[in-house]
Amino acid sequence: MKYILYCRKSTEDKGRQVLSLDSQINEMRKIADNLGLKIEREFRESKSAKMPDNRPLFSEMITYIQKNKKESYGVLCWKIDRLSRNPIDSATVQWLLQQGKIKVIQTADRQYLPSDNVLLFNVESSMANQYILDLSKNVKRGIIAKLEQGGFPNFAPVGYINDKANKTIVIDKERDRYIRKAFEMYASSNHSLKDITNTLYDEGFRSRGGNKIHKSKIHYLLSNPIYCGIIEKDGKKYIGNHKPIISKKLFDDVQKVAQLATRPKTKKLYFMYRGVLKCSKCGCAMTASKKKGKHIYYYCTNGKGKCNEHKVYLKEEKASEEMAKAFKEVKFDERLINLCYKAKMEELEANDDYLTQAQDNLKKQLEAVSKRKNALLDLFIDGKIEKDIYDNKNNLLNNEEVEIKKELSELKSKIGNKGKETLERIKEVFLYPVNKEKTFLEIKDEKKEEVIKALLWNAQFENQKIAHFSFKEPYNILSKVSNKSDFSQLLRDRDSNPD
Ligand SMILES: [Zn+2]
Questions:
Q1: CA of 459 to the centre of ligand 1 (A)
Q2: For site-directed labelling of 482, which of 63, 115, 328, 428 has its Cα 20 to 30 A away?
Q3: Which residues make up the environment of ion ligand 1, defined by Cβ < 5 Å?
Q4: pLDDT digits (tens, 9 = 90+) for 120-138
Q5: Distance from residue 485's CA to the centre of ligand 1 (Å)
Q6: Three-class SS state of 171
Q7: Is the pTM value of this prediction over 0.85?
Q8: Mind listing the domains of the chain with CATH numbers?
Q9: Cα-to-centroid distance, 462 and ligand 1 (Å)
Q10: Residue 287 region, left (φ>0) first, then alpha (ψ -120 to 50), else beta?
């Protein structure tokens, strides 16, 4: 059997108990010599094994082993963590072991065979994985420590330059005045972002690569407190030890102006009957506009291009009067209204029951997840499972929890009285004693809109007069029943439309 020697040392291994590449090779050659093993190829890698796909020579070695179909190999390496420090590479090596492509892994102090020691290899590479996790935690800790000391751990933002020797940032003398100007212009609230971007460009503001600094970048830098000496990272603020370019006051002023700018300036015009009114002649929807800044008029959009109605303008007040008349003309029977009301209410309640049950089920699921989390934690505390398994599983359970909670909150907004309140109000409008026409005209516009939209699919107008309207459920039944007190007819209609 032929052997392949793989050695690895990355810059991250500096200062740790890892032999240099040359020493690793010498040591392993000696061992091979003692055991009488023949080395066919040597791979010397100076890369980290933290991430998969990071080591060209490791990949080359794997390809080399796989390609040679007739041969199986032994692998020589100083320590098992030289071979793999991430789960993907571990799996690759393990697969080759199981396939018999690698017959043995020989390290300085032990032998790994496919049969008996695979498990050991697993454990040791999972230790290597833990080492990587710790390392990245240390890197994060390092960044936070640096922030707490007032240092800036990233690439300096425009207006500053990294001072690598002192591990801080210093003012970029060529660009700081543009930054100051951007803040001052914006704080004056007389300039748009586009304005500021173009002015600065005209005055020579360029990126370090010599390019125009885009509007979005200006927008971003105006919200970055680093320019007044505050470093913000992951929502936490630190006092930087770098020199600020602007005052805290100017920065705050800019934030205030920015807040005002995001407030909507013009209210969208509100037309309560838009979507309801139709032209009776051509069937097109009627649209509205405000004339002379006061009255709202509806008119045919003339979508088919040949309607003469579109020259007729219908005043909103007139439309209301017409629709109120329509209510008056339809003689609603009180008992019928009550029956319809009851039917609709039952439907709403049945739906609520269903939703409440769904809610109960979700709450039970949430409890179950919580119990599973506790059980998992107990296992971990008792040392029955490893940290990474615990983290993994706990994360899955957390995600499940979040999803259930989201579903619950969505359900909550569906259960409730909104539908019932509307129904109640509609009933009131219809049952209001004596003058229904008057009632409709007296309620507020928002309520008028609500009542109309709950009652009617549409109302067709011709020459400023209502010509036809179609009711929604359950009121359509009323218009269908010829004799409006004919209950048997009504109930037949109801039974044939159970939903
Ligand atoms: Zn028309």
A1: 13
A2: 428
A3: 279, 281-282, 284, 300, 307, 309
A4: 555 565 666 666 666 666 6
A5: 36
A6: strand
A7: no
A8: 2-139 (3.40.50.1390), 160-262 (3.90.1750.20)
A9: 8
A10: beta
